[in-house]
Amino acid sequence: MPEITTPSSIMPEIHPRNSLSTFLPRALEQVVKSVTRSTPDEYDRDSEGLRKVDFRIGEETFPIFVGHDRLDALIAKLKLHLDTFDHLFLGYDENTVKYCAPQLEAALQRAGISFKTCVMGLTEANKNMAALDHILETFLQSGGTRKTVMCPVGGGIVSNTFGLAAGLLFRGIRLVQIPTTFLNAHDAVTSKKQAINHTGYKNIVGLFHLPSLVLCDTSFYETLTRREMKAGLGELTKNAALFGGDHYELMKRTTMDHGWQLTPEEMTEATFLGMSAKDMLLCQDPKEKHLALLFEYGHTVGHALELTQGVSTSHGEGVTLGMLAVSYIAWKMGIMTAEDREAHDALVHALDPEIIIPDRDCLAEVMDKVMHDNKRGYLPEREGFVPMILNKRIGEMHKPNPMYLEYCPVDLVEESVKVLLNRYGPYKYKL
């Protein structure tokens, strides 16, 4: 049985920069042309040197401000864009309370803005009911009211958990997202989806709650490890496979040409390009039920790996590993050619995703997570099949229906997981 492809010596040249992928399905191409700006440079800059975009989710919009080492200017936007509030409720994890809180809280004090704080655990295992209950209890016991503004400060775990609390308290209080990771700045904060994990299943308990404002200071990225930066680049790798064009060129420059050395301006460009990808689909599909399901590419197997006992990988890297599994499936189903698969997988190999897999048979556990993926239910159930999003080639997604979901045989999905585990883990499976 053929293995997952190995890296090419150079990244293949597929789409020119600043051009729309010639492979985009016609319907998606019209959306992209009609609702997006062609390059990140076209986003507005204000007098404080901040980049701004009015992010659209359906008919609703909220402002996003991005700057580098511009924390005071960003904090000033709170008073400018929010009506009267009594105080902020700052939500941290165990890292951001150490590395980001001192600068943020000093800026709030300079601006005369009062705040209360709450800290949750750092890992995916802490994104649960116990953490949610701790946040709700702390909020109420510290005097939180309908006029209090919830402000998660950190990565996607913090944003999702405190965001869910914001949607529940008083049936919804205002939410200001302050992402401090590269991944969160173009992922969780640019969505209405707020959720936690439960009973071993990812993002299974949640609701839709729109942020009022997003404030992003990319200088916080300087606190991240190389691994954490790779987590953010993992989602951008997914976008490169989805859209080609600028997204593909960004990943080529970042993972191949620059050796991970991003300047502050390049960090801002990458953040805005990731935001533009979400903006162009969420304005048409605010609850992510059809067109925006494309952003779930690679997530079915990726989430399963993240949630498997003893497996250690970041969300973004898990997504790229999931991309390898679905490219194998698409190739075996005749949807993707061997040549297109090689080019697709080269994107992932250039990122060099890291994962620790225990030296035991964990296939059944991974497959159990796959079979309970939160995308089940969009299509009528078919015994022996798993609905998955597949790619034909870089910049063109397989579209069997408006949800872009294909029925994939369970046996083939299991085979793709075996190939993946054989490549990255010590325990070997027969194919």
From TrEMBL:
Pfam family, one: DHQ_synthase
Residues spanning the signal sequence: none
Keyword field contains Phosphoprotein: no
Any one Gene Ontology molecular-function term assigned to this protein's record: 3-dehydroquinate synthase activity
Cofactor entry: NAD(+); Co(2+)
Stored InterPro entries: Dehydroquinate_synthase, DHQS/DOIS_N, DHQS_C
Name of this chain's protein: 3-dehydroquinate synthase domain-containing protein
Keywords on record: Metal-binding, NAD
Domain 3-dehydroquinate synthase C-terminal: from-to ranges: 232-375
Highest taxon in the source lineage: Eukaryota
Source taxonomy: Eukaryota, Sar, Stramenopiles, Ochrophyta, Raphidophyceae
Domain 3-dehydroquinate synthase N-terminal: 120-230
Keyword Lipoprotein: no
